């Protein structure tokens, strides 16, 4: 049955932004960036996001603004790069989540597609909404670790460039969104310490084109208590702290990844070139539509509580239904209509 779960608030990813006077750094320039990405369970929720009588996370202090850049308003073609060694069962689970974004209306409510409907409320300067159509347009398995087992932020762009230049994936600079997922044995710059995922765009000097992309790592072995929270909890919390939730699909690392993937795709769609929808005056450290709802998964959430979520017959927690009977636990998104965090499993 549904019940409020008590957990410390997480700060998940802001996208990393290159602070440069020019649109792109020189080819030899390294990515020296400011980052406050996914997940810091040590950090409490901002006091501005106190719950209102109806909507979790609502606040008069949030000034989310549109900065005149594009959103992904055409059908979104997701190109998936499996970097490293992946179990087919894990691939199937993530694939089903992505396919559920545009699933048929017959999917049980609350659904992943209904969750994405909040994202589609955002528009560009022409009034075009973010697309409801999110297609899994291509996949490539980079099981040979083409850029090694330890990646930097910049080398992730080289992973994308290699996949497109060798013909494994097309260069889709109109509708494409590239998603790089690293296996549990791959280390990534700042992974676990400061980030669990981020989004940005490729530099033409690296990939030949400006291509929106996101990266998310599998934290199952490296730092589940950081990046797969609330399915794992930090040891410092001890017996007096919150107990971990049972993941909806029985895999702490992959179930944790799915919420991060949802977070990053929502922000990639609404701020693909980092000049569209975000709060704050500093474009090098924007607060985006998923950042505003960190740690909120259901009604009653806020102040360290994830909110009311559902439970299956064996106690696994979820808040969204997907295709093939899949269930997922994915954080809420800031609604530009409600001026608050929203999700289809809301009960108020």
Q: Any overview of this molecule?
A:
By secondary structure, this protein is of the alpha/beta class. It has one domain (3-19, 34-342). The chain is 18% helix and 21% strand. The chain has helices at residues 88-100, 112-119, 153-165, 204-207, 224-227, 252-270, and strands at 3-6, 17-18, 33-34, 64-66, 76-83, 134-142, 150-151, 176-182, 187-188, 197-201, 212-217, 277-279, 305-311, 317-318, 320-321, 327-328, 333-335, 340-342. It has a five-stranded mixed sheet, with helices on both faces. Strands 1-13-14 form a three-stranded antiparallel sheet, with no helix packed on it. A hairpin with a 5-residue loop joins β13 and β14 (317-318). The protein is globular. The chain starts with a strand and ends in a 6-residue tail after the last strand. The model is unreliable at 1-55 (pLDDT under 50).
What is the secondary structure topology, with strand pairs?
Blueprint: E1 3-6, E2 17-18, E3 33-34, E4 64-66, E5 76-83, H1 88-100, H2 112-119, E6 134-142, E7 150-151, H3 153-165, E8 176-182, E9 187-188, E10 197-201, H4 204-207, E11 212-217, H5 224-227, H6 252-270, E12 277-279, E13 305-311, E14 317-318, E15 320-321, E16 327-328, E17 333-335, E18 340-342
Parallel strand pairs: 5-6, 5-8, 7-9, 8-11
Antiparallel strand pairs: 1-13, 2-3, 4-12, 10-11, 13-14, 15-16, 17-18
Helix pairs in contact: 1-6
Please provide a brief summary of the model:
With about 350 residues, the chain is an alpha/beta fold.
């Amino acid at each position: 049955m549904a019940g409020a779960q008590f957990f410390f608030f997480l700060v998940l990813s802001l996208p990393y932004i290159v602070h440069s006077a020019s649109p792109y750094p020189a080819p030899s320039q390294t990515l020296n960036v400011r980052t406050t990405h996914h997940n810091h369970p040590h950090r409490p929720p901002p006091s501005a996001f106190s719950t209102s009588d109806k909507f979790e996370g609502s606040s008069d202090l949030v000034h989310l603004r549109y900065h005149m850049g594009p959103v992904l308003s055409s059908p979104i073609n997701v190109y998936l790069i499996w970097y490293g060694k992946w179990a087919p069962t894990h691939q199937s689970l993530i694939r089903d989540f992505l396919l559920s974004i545009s699933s048929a209306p017959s999917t049980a409510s609350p659904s992943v597609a209904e969750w994405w409907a909040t994202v589609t409320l955002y528009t560009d300067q022409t009034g075009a909404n973010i697309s409801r159509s999110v297609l899994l347009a291509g996949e490539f398995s980079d099981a040979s670790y083409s850029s090694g087992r330890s990646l930097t932020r910049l080398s992730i762009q080289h992973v994308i460039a290699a996949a497109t230049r060798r013909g494994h994936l097309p260069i889709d600079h109109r509708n494409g969104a590239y998603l790089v997922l690293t296996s549990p044995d791959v280390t990534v710059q700042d992974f676990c310490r400061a980030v669990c995922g981020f989004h940005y765009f490729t530099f033409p000097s690296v990939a030949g084109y400006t291509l929106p992309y996101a990266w998310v790592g599998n934290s199952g072995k490296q730092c589940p208590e950081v990046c797969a929270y609330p399915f794992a909890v930090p040891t410092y919390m001890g017996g007096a702290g919150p107990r971990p939730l049972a993941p909806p699909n029985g895999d702490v690392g992959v179930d944790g990844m799915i919420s991060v993937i949802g977070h990053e795709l929502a922000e990639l769609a609404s701020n693909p070139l980092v000049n569209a929808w975000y709060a704050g005056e500093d474009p090098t450290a924007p607060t985006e539509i998923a950042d505003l709802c960190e740690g909120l998964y259901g009604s009653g959430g806020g102040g360290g509580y994830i909110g009311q979520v559902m439970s299956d017959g064996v106690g696994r927690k979820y808040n969204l239904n997907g295709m093939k009977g899949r269930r997922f636990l994915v954080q809420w998104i800031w609604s530009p209509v409600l001026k608050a965090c929203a999700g289809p499993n809301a009960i108020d």
